[in-house]
Amino acid sequence: MSDVIRLLPDSVANQIAAGEVIQRPASVVKELVENAIDAGAHHIDVLVTDAGKTCIQVIDDGKGMSETDARLAFERHATSKIREAADLFSLRTMGFRGEALASIAAVAQVELRTCQEGEQLGTSIIISGSKVESQEAVACAKGSNFSVKNLFFNIPARRKFLKSNQTELSNILTEFERIALVNPDVSFTLHHNDTEILNLPAIQLRQRIMGVFGKKLNQDLLSLDINTTMVKIHGFVGKPETARKKGARQFFFVNGRYMRHPYFHKAVAEAYENLIPTGEQISYFIYFEVDPANIDVNIHPTKTEIKFENEQAIWQILSAAVKETLGRFNAVPSIDFDTEGKPDIPAFDSLPYSGVEPPRTSYDPSYNPFNTPSPVSPSSYSSASYTPKQQGGWEPFYQGLDKKSSGSADWQYSAFPEEEMPAVPVEEPQAPSLYDEQPEEAITEKAAQHYQYKGSYILTSVKSGLMIIDQHRAHVRILYDQYMEQMEKCQHASQRMLFPDMVHFSPAEVPVLEEIMDDLHALGFDLSSLGGGSYAINGVPAGIEGLNPETLVTNMVQTAIEKGCKVKEEVQSMLALSLAKAAAIVAGQVLTNEEMNSLVDGLFAVSTPNYTPDGKTVLSVLKEDDLEKLFK
Fold this sequence. Notes:
There is one protein chain. By secondary structure, the chain is α+β, with helices and mostly antiparallel strands. It folds into 3 domains: about 10-200, Histidine kinase-like ATPase, C-terminal domain (Heat Shock Protein 90); about 205-330, 2-Layer Sandwich (Ribosomal Protein S5, domain 2); about 450-620, MutL, C-terminal domain, regulatory subdomain (Ribosomal Protein S8, Chain: A, domain 1), CATH 3.30.1370.100. Helix content is about 30%, strand content about 20%. The protein is built from 17 helices and 24 strands. An 8-stranded mixed sheet has the order 5-4-3-6-2-1-7-8. Strands 9-10-13-11-12 form a 5-stranded mixed sheet. The protein has a 4-stranded antiparallel sheet with strand order 18-19-20-24. This is DNA mismatch repair protein MutL. It comes from Phocaeicola acetigenes.
């Protein structure tokens, strides 16, 4: 029997490695920019064509490479960062495994032009599909210039699964933001199709955050700074009032490297417990500095998951630091429980000012309301002078009221002495009979066809039993169909805003917004660009009064980013559902009988009343047999 196991060619092995390291154009940008930072660059230019599918060019002013190093850099596991296994636990650079350039060269056409400082000539290398096509000496500027063209040209299946240009550009901008936020001392520029998207000069950290996400964020951040022997933590956390359901800026960095860490995220979330509504998120930019020997960054190909040796201790330090920051900036209401005994409230035995007497009241001690045979109308007596025991005419009431002049509205009033106060004549009323005819208005009220339970559910009788309807989900179901019909027919009803709202998007969100702009317009939104990622909301769909347009648009963009929709119908469905959830009546809203009738009728007019568009139950029927069993 012949042998069946053999070594793979280097080109095939590199393509397999590329499947882990290079997933999309954003992965190429990440690896090349991180290499430029490791090379000591102070200025980095990134130029992207067709969202990286056609070309990605990264130019830096780092130290460059020699002719030999330029050639070896494209070999697998060729690196200048480590020499032995122990070096993996003392890393202070972004890259170290020597897989990035080899993986990129295996799935694209790469050209490198590099030159070291003080050298007259540099080196130019062209590699296509792991094969070196040419290598020669050229004149070029100090640093490195990588040009990656036709990504996945030799793997059509991988190229076919790339998303739309807007989605891939958004992913590139996301990676670019992460690198820019942790390297404020490096200046960056980013161009897409010869259009400048970002221009970030070298600046302090807080100003770098403002440069990426807008100046409006500046007033929402609180400074965080704590230094211990185990870890040093600094950065910024958001104020509790800035919490939002979607689109929060949440970043963790350790030793200059972006990371995802759900465990540490829970520490921050716990510090905001009872300060923000359930389900909402807070923005934060938190930077950790720890001994490289106490972390392991080599547990994931993209190096975004990092393992800490003292996770529990750092968790407690982080939670305490965030709570201290919230308390220091008075973001947490303080209550003093140290006071023992009763509070010291001053008591006055006598009035502080002489000549001031407390008010006195006069009343008739002989008045007994139960002596009245039956209630009378308020217009038949005066509360100030009614004495049931005395009977008399109305004339005495007008004694002492002397009109000064026929055209004057001023009257003089002389009060009767208490013992001579005339009584109000009271006629003996007859008790109403149960068989007397009632006014028509009293019997026109119809019995309620529906019953609302705790402001959330509508109970109504059906042939098979008792139907229970979730009023919020029912309204979502109705509004969703209406919005979808509007978008399909392009018959939107837009309401102009008297004072347009302004909303700001990060560079990574702008391409997604532009992709769904037509669908937003079909819904009734009218947005105009103000430049720099800012947009003016000039019009909103009719029927969403009381909702915040800025929050609506932001949530729909975030939903589009999360769903990754590229088909227009999917985007329309997502937008319609997002808007329907925001505009639907909420749990706890009390409805009149007419409103409940309209809601139930509208629900059963749709094609699928049983479930919401995202598959949640709208109604449930408690059968008559089950009801009867409850009373046996």
